[in-house]
Design a protein that fits this description.
89 residues, mainly alpha, 78% helix, membrane, transmembrane helix, transmembrane
């Protein structure tokens, strides 16, 4: 189900205002250079966090595929041994 664009837009607007207004106020008081340095560090760490999450999810998915292909975990038995009692008679 797609997200409601009005709700999504209002949430994004609140997030932008919550981020931009404090940054502008701090830049006015402290100085633009320091704010840019801090923002660069914050964005860098957020990028590293996103990369770590993506890599972890990819490894989990790959491990799931490997487990399925190499018989780890429950699998249906393709060979039936129901005929053995008939042969034994």
């Amino acid at each position: 189900m797609p997200a409601d664009p009005v709700r999504t837009g209002s949430v994004l607007g609140v997030v932008v205002v919550a981020v931009v207004v404090p940054v502008v106020l701090v830049a006015a008081v402290v100085g633009v250079a320091r704010v840019l340095l801090v923002l660069t560090l914050v964005v860098g760490f957020l990028g590293l966090a996103v990369v770590a999450v993506v890599v972890a999810r990819a490894r989990t998915a790959a491990q799931r595929v490997l487990n399925r292909n190499h018989g780890v975990g429950p699998r249906p038995n393709p060979v039936s041994f129901d005929y053995l009692p008939v042969i034994a008679q």
